[in-house]
Amino acid sequence: MTIVAIIPARSGSKSIPGKNIRYLAGHPLVAYSIIGALKSKIIDRVVLSTDDEQIADIAKDYGAEVPFLRPMELAQDNTQDLPVFQHALEWLDYNENYKPEIIVHLRPTNPFRSVADIDEAIQLLQVNSTAHSVRGVSLPLTSPYKMYRLKEHGFIEPLFVSEHPNAHNMPRQKLPVVYRGNGAVDITRWNTIMMLNSMTGTQILSYYIKDERCVDIDTQEDWDYAEWLCKSFRRGLPLSGDHIDCRR
Known about the structure:
- The protein is of the alpha/beta class and 248 residues long.
- The protein folds into two domains: 3-138 and 179-243, Spore Coat Polysaccharide Biosynthesis Protein SpsA, Chain A (Alpha-Beta Complex), CATH 3.90.550; 140-178, no CATH class.
- The protein is 27% helix and 20% strand.
- The chain has helices spanning 29-38, 53-61, 81-96, 115-126, 190-194, 220-233; strands at 3-8, 23-24, 27-28, 45-49, 102-105, 133-138, 148-150, 156-158, 180-189, 204-208, 238-239, 242-243.
- The strands form four sheets. The protein has a six-stranded mixed β-sheet, with helices on both faces. A two-stranded antiparallel ribbon has the order 2-3.
- Strand 7 (148-150) and strand 8 (156-158) form a beta hairpin.
- The longest helix has 16 residues, at 81-96.
């Protein structure tokens, strides 16, 4: 199967200006996704989708292909993943006659994923022909069965009151096991994106990743936490297939 990793890295982050190229443990944030994909034993190509020439230049320095610049209308705060990936795949098909069977979605904001996470998630989709996609998941901090919905006048009601009327009062061990999408690695078929018009389709396989390997950096607090993980636990980030020293 032909397999391409697509790394979306737009400019214009509001929460952390220049987030994708800000240095974490000695390297730009986007570098960790690029190197992880390059070190994969399965991925054929690593393509970065960006609207920014500076991000493009840095990505090229770390070994990614940047064959196009993403249109500005696909690099807004409210832009969803689907049109970004459809644009990339349409460009590759039209300009290079390249139509990969499997697309690996690696977000730059998840630097702690391992190369093994990437390859094992890909293999999971390869051996399950009926699956539309694979999504990285982890356990949530709090079960949604313990959550509430806000009503009028400040009143609340349990989120799943119709399904499990007493779930909010039940022990955690008695509740259904649920997972959250962690954004660390998502694997999708070309047909799912282009024919089903979806990033996941309906037949979604799960790939479990421990919390410490799926830190999603969205806010300054997340960034501080990532730096704290490195310094406090001397945890390395998966660059060049090995671990680098984060104590800088």
